[in-house]
Amino acid sequence: MSDSANVTTHDFPDGHALAAALAEQIADRLRAGIAERGHALLAVSGGSTPKRFFEQLSRQSLDWAKVQVTLVDERWVPESNERSNAAMVKAMLLQHDATAAQFVPLYSDAPTPEAGLVTVRARLASLALPFDAVILGMGNDGHTASFFPGGDRLPEALDLNNAARVLPMRAPGAGEPRITFTLSALLDTRALFLHIEGEAKRQLLADAQQGAGEAVNFPVRSVLTQPRVPVSVYWCP
Ligand SMILES: O=C(O)[C@H](O)[C@@H](O)[C@H](O)[C@H](O)COP(=O)(O)O
User: Are 5 and 222 in contact (CB under 8 A)?
Assistant: First the structure.
């Protein structure tokens, strides 16, 4: 993985050091948003990688009552399901000082994301966009948010001219149906981070950046090559 005009990498010796640095970076951005506009907006990823970072961020001292937190994507399952990203964010991030933050979920109790879309879109109208920070993760298949290889609405989700904020997404590698912010909506941010851990993901990201072999089709490549927002990659072994 190498730096390019739009991608800067920050390497850390271990997950603890990365989590501490990323938590400070994000907290600074939230504090700046509150100081400048009276509120701040953060979009985070689910999955397993962010847990340690969430724990660190939850202990950062700032006026959390003025912070809205949402997810970049969600699995279409209720919070009682262990696959719920919302449940993970509530357990790991919305604790300690961060309990006061307002969480804006992407799931409604409709049976499918298609059926829940109107409700979720109405809810998202309350978001004070642009985001102060968006933090993406990446899966071993090159997906980010719910931009999965073979996703049924992948071209729409990656279309930088798409005005939709969120879309349903179904893909062979996604498990359950998903709902995801579109790339265009996620790029409506003051700062963009990609948090990955481990050698395998480092190599995969390097391949995606170079467009090497099948990696030319990895959806994360759309994030790395877009011209709108610089990408800060946070990595540790
Ligand atoms: O709901 C999700 O699955 C995520 O938001 C997803 O985009 C995640 O960032 C990657 O799958 C990485 O997940 P891990 O951190 O578990 O590898």
Answer: no
Q: Assign residue 127 the CATH number of its domain.
A: 3.40.50.1360
In a domain, 8, yes or no: no
Q: Residue holding tokens 């071993």? A: 140
Q: Are 47 and 139 in contact (CB under 8 A)?
A: yes
Has residue 20 been placed in a domain? no
Nearest CA to ligand 1 atom 17: 139
* C-alpha span between 180 and 214 (Å, rounded): 24
Q: What is residue 4's predicted lDDT score, i.e. its pLDDT?
A: 78
Residue nearest to atom 9 of ligand 1 (CA): 137
Give per-residue pLDDT as tens, 171-186: 999 999 999 999 999 9
Give the predicted TM-score (pTM) of the model: 0.97
User: How many folded domains does the chain comprise?
Assistant: 1
Pocket test for ligand 1, best of 69, 143, 220, 234 (most atoms within 8 A of CB): 143
Q: Is 122 part of any domain? A: yes
Range of the domain at 188: 25-236
Name the 3-class secondary structure at 23.
helix
Does residue 9 lie in a domain region? Answer: no
ipTM value > 0.90:
yes
Q: List, chain by chain if needed, residues with CB within 6 Å of any ligand 1 atom.
A: 45-49, 72-73, 75, 85, 137-139, 143-145
How much distance in Å is there from the Cα of 138 to the middle of ligand 1? 6
